[in-house]
Amino acid sequence: MIGYRFLLNLTIIEKEDIIEKRRKNMDKINTNPPSGTRDFLPSDLKFREEILTTTKQVFESFGFLPIKTPAFERIEVLTGKYGDEGEKLIFKILKRGKKELIKESDLALRYDFTVPLARVMVQYRDKLPKIFKRYQIGPVWRADRPSKGRFREFYQADIDIVGVSSLVADIEILLVFSKVLTRLGLQDFVIHLNSRKVLAGLMKVLDIPEQFHVDILTILDKFDKIGAKEMKGELLKSDISTKVAKNIIELFKLLDSDVSVISTLEDFLRLSPEGNMGLNEIKRIIKIVTLMMKEGTIVFSPFLARGLSYYNGPIFEIYYKGLTTSIASGGRYDNLIGMFSKKSIPACGGSLGIERIVLLLDKKRQNKRESSFSQVLVTVWNEDFLQDSLYLASELRNQGLLVETYLGEEDKIGKQLRYASDMKIPFVILFGPDEKDKNKVAIKNMQTSKQIILSRDKFTDFFRE
After folding, report:
1. At a CB cut-off of 8 Å and minimum separation 6, what does 189 contact?
2. How far apart are CA 127 and CA 131, in angstroms?
3. Whole-angstrom Cα distance, residue 149 to residue 154?
4. Which of 401, 412, 402 is nearest to 379 (CA)?
5. Rounded to 5 degrees, what are φ and ψ at 239?
6. pLDDT value of residue 370
7. Are residues 52 and 153 in the same domain?
8. DSSP symbol at 406
């Protein structure tokens, strides 16, 4: 019997020891969100939703329709579409169950919305209109190195026009984005425009071997960021011949003269029909967009390349005053959908970088008084008045107002008013014994501290004014 009690006590001690170890381990858990991701508290999320709502309204005003695709895709859908650098940033998902041991991936988190759209167009072509204008807003994921303003999970707002080869579609994409930025109060933007056709023409005229095209385009794409001097250094250090590097440097000097960039390139690309076609398209786009835009400017950027390999026509990036990174980008990708089927379908589109837009607008928001979600707080005098308060709140909600009923029913009215003040709720409904006897309702303005008394059956009229 003594031995049994000893074992029982030992078992209890062991269990307590295990519980204590688990408690200590819980204390060691890192409660920060994973690197490159964020938690959004109510005020931040509300602010973001307002931006997304405005964006969505503009998209729909141009006739774009929403679609939604899964957060992850089959690995073969995403690979081979983004170029070598983009390929490295795909978040791959290991096979599950027994196959997990082989460390192979069959799925991946979506890298953008464009490739999933191409898949959708092939899968549902017979159910979609011949000219399909779509938008999609949501998170995408990239296995990037997190830094200030750069995340692994971030929101994009995309628009695309499928089934149109005319430049009218490319022009409309730019007009939509300019309208969104203007509506959001971001008027100081510049659209940088180029064409993959122009770049292809340059590669040909400069006699750059095809195996070096990607490397050279990557260097050229840095021109606006690092300048001509740094660019020369990178070219001379690259694997291309010194002669080719010097030819490119000579082109820099030509374009840096006082002569029109487009005129200079027209002469330079006279032996490249593709390059000249690209320049003509750029001139037409700039002419029409300049006339149509109320805010912002559009300029030709001859070395803008865009990293994604599926572009084949006009490409663009939009920058905002004071920022070195773009807040929107896109272009034409007529051959991407054909990678999923035998038939090539023309398409163009672009993406708004919501995170950078939020950062820009957040600076303006900080100077404004934060407001609550709720417009009215209905107080609860005591338990006997709970049902009355619930009825009052219900009547106000029926009028379309955002209304809270105070939940700590034992708290005094003073504490309830402090809650309304802390939460920045502009109006408070007071309904106690005096109001009930007189069939009245008291409404307190929390900003002015003024209070009015209205008839019980007419108090909702106050909020219609």
Report:
1. 178, 181, 295, 296, 297, 318, 319, 320, 321, 327
2. 12
3. 10
4. 412
5. -80, -5
6. 57
7. yes
8. -
Q: What angle do CA 257, 260, 265 make, to 5 degrees?
A: 90
Locus of tokens 């002015």: 448
pLDDT, averaged across the chain: 87
Q: Are residues 44 and 159 in the same domain?
A: yes
Residue 109 CB: number of other CB atoms within 10 A?
A: 20
Res 7: pLDDT:
47
Q: Please count the structural domains in the chain.
A: 3
The amino acid occupying position 93 is I
Query: Please, which residues have CB within 8 angstroms of residue 454's CB and are 6 or more apart in sequence?
Result: 440, 441, 443, 461, 462
User: Do residues 348 and 169 lie in contact, with contact meaning Cβ atoms separated by under 8 Å?
Assistant: yes
Distance CA 397, CA 380 (A): 17
The pLDDT of residue 394 is 95
> 409 and 365 share a domain?
no
Rounded to whole angstroms, the Cα distance separating 76 from 92 reads 11
Token pair of 195 as six digits: 């064409």
Looking at this protein, which amino acid is placed at residue 390?
L
- H helix runs in 194-351, sequence order: 196-205, 213-220, 223-237, 242-255, 261-268, 273-292
**Signed CA dihedral, 418, 420, 423, 424: sign only:** negative
Tell me the three state secondary structure of residue 259.
coil
What's the CATH code of the domain at 439? 3.40.50.800
Residue predicted with more confidence, 248 or 279 = 279
For residue 257, what pLDDT is reported?
60
Instruction: Encode pLDDT of 362-378 as tens digits.
Output: 877 655 545 568 999 99
What's the burial of 420, exposed, middle or buried (CB within 10 Å: 0-12/13-18/19+)? buried
Residue 262 and residue 167 share a domain: no
Q: What is the dihedral of CA 283, 284, 285, 289, to 10 degrees?
A: 110
Render 39-100 in DSSP notation, one character per residue. Answer: ---HHHHHHHHHHHHHHHHHHHHTT-EE----SEEEHHHHTTSSHHHHHHT--EEEPPGGGG
> pLDDT per residue over 111-127, tens digit each?
999 999 999 999 999 99
Q: Are 446 and 420 in contact (CB under 8 A)?
A: yes
